[in-house]
Amino acid sequence: MEIIKNVKEMQKKASQAKKQGKKICFVPTMGFFHEGHITLMREGRKLADILAISIFVNPTQFSQGEDLDVYPRDLKGDIEKIKDIGVDWVFAPSASEMYPEGFQSYVIVEKVTRNLCGKFRPGHFRGVATICLKLFNIIKPDLAVFGEKDFQQLVTIKQMVKDLNLDLKVIGIPTVREKDGLAMSSRNIYLTPNERKKALAIFRSLKEANEMFKKGERKAIPIIKHVREILEKENGISIDYVQICDINTIEDIDKIDKKALLAVAVRIGSARLIDNIILGRD
Amino acid sequence: MEIIKNVKEMQKKASQAKKQGKKICFVPTMGFFHEGHITLMREGRKLADILAISIFVNPTQFSQGEDLDVYPRDLKGDIEKIKDIGVDWVFAPSASEMYPEGFQSYVIVEKVTRNLCGKFRPGHFRGVATICLKLFNIIKPDLAVFGEKDFQQLVTIKQMVKDLNLDLKVIGIPTVREKDGLAMSSRNIYLTPNERKKALAIFRSLKEANEMFKKGERKAIPIIKHVREILEKENGISIDYVQICDINTIEDIDKIDKKALLAVAVRIGSARLIDNIILGRD
């Protein structure tokens, strides 16, 4: 496992590997690893000759007033956690290495970023798309692996890859959960034990929604209403959104006549948590 | 010389060449070739194993009300004109091949596109940056060659390449002129013989400006004033701008204490023509 901090060095290494015909799989992360990240890496490990990951808390995807400054970081601990997974390259640049003075170019994916988190986090997906494109250009992957917990992010990256003719395949991996159902997230560390308990309502509400769907409910409104009721019962949960969307366009739908995304974002204490489930998938 | 119209086919060909260690040089064009294009290709031919060019009139770089529909096109004639230059690949896709339904991702280069043509052609540089990024991802060049006549475009592409970590070198080639000084442009075809004569005032004004600079003038205002006077003397020339800018930031400068861009855009009849000169270069 090599740790690389310099863009040119990383890019040169990637070029050489490509010239040797090596297949590269890439897992971009913001570090502070949990089992979700580890799962992405284990899946990635199976798919290519070289497994590259990045650890970079990307400032351009945080909106004003968000948690950029307090976002948890632990490079040493992260390296320790992944030492047996078979990661070949860890790309861990500084912010100034990625965004030198004079930086001014951004990627905008227009439609799929308008709804859900796009409404609450101005500039977020512009930052996500831009850093992913940069990392793709530096690491030159054949495959890139993303978690489905950030479903709108996954769709955004897939759209960008298609629209900009990036020669790589994007793979989504189902959300990894704690035993009690809470979706794994580096931001769970912001929760007090009491808030942590309340947060279980999120997955409980998604499961109940899925039961409604399985029993035949095909209208979005009653499902959304039920999810909101469960969440609103918990003191201290504030809802950003509960929506049912087309899984490709991320536009709201009224009637669920094919697989659909049920997505939730809430605030609990200082944490903003998101989760989702695909209705009709299993 | 192979003519390729399909994105996936072009991309596969490029990937294979890269794996064989071949160096690719790329000249993007909108076709309707004149000696300026040919010069870019001849220069490109010297620099790599494979010379790729594209012929594509890119709709996203034309603003509302501009000349997209009447822009001259002549694929057969173009192919004939370049048959002895040693072009390996001509990538000539359709608009729907490059912008299929649902297309929604764009690259924005913020600062260097604000001034000059950026003020007069809303969305132009967004379209230019986006199509160039797409073409770079399809053709995978090690080098890309652009003409200096579109100086702001050249600076925009250089900035994008740097910011987004594209692994390629951008090369600018000095403007090629007709014997009487008119900068070569596919849009010169819009000029009547009478307008064609008036258009000579553009390069004449740039040359006189350069003489002023050589004689010691270092303030922008008197030089700009002189250029405007020459242009305004011609009936039927309408000035979009005459400006002196930093060659890297494309910001206006008052005092010329290093190489500077003197850029002009005018309208003559139905043509919008641009030209420029680098003060202090020779």
What does this structure look like?
The structure is a homodimer of 282-residue chains. The first copy, chain A, contains ten helices and ten strands. In chain A, strands 1-4-3-2-6-7 form a six-stranded parallel sheet, with helices on both faces. A three-stranded antiparallel sheet of chain A has the order 8-9-10, with helices on one face. The relative contact order of chain A is 0.14. Chain A is α/β, with parallel strands linked by helices. Chain A folds into two domains: 172 residues, HUPs (Rossmann fold); 90 residues, Pantoate--beta-alanine Ligase, Chain: A,domain 2 (2-Layer Sandwich). In chain A, α6 crosses α7 and α9 packs antiparallel against α10. At the A-B interface, α1, β5, α6 and α7 of A face α1, β5, α6 and α7 of B. β5 of chain A pairs antiparallel with β5 of chain B, so a sheet runs across the interface.
Structural class of chain A: alpha/beta
**Biggest pleated sheet of chain A:** 6 strands, parallel
Q: What's the CATH superfamily of the largest domain in chain A, by name?
A: HUPs
From the 3D coordinates, which CATH architecture of the largest domain in chain A would you assign? 3-Layer(aba) Sandwich
What's a quick, concise take on this entry?
The structure is a homodimer of 282-residue chains. Chain A has 282 residues and is an alpha/beta fold.
Layout of helices and strands, plus pairs?
The structure is a homodimer of 282-residue chains.
Chain A: E1 2-4, H1 7-19, E2 24-29, H2 35-47, E3 50-55, H3 75-81, E4 89-91, H4 95-98, E5 105-109, H5 117-120, H6 124-139, E6 143-147, H7 151-163, E7 169-173, H8 193-198, H9 200-214, H10 220-233, E8 237-246, E9 260-268, E10 271-279
Parallel strand pairs in A: 1-4, 2-3, 2-6, 3-4, 6-7
Antiparallel strand pairs in A: 8-9, 9-10
Helix pairs in contact in A: 6-7, 9-10
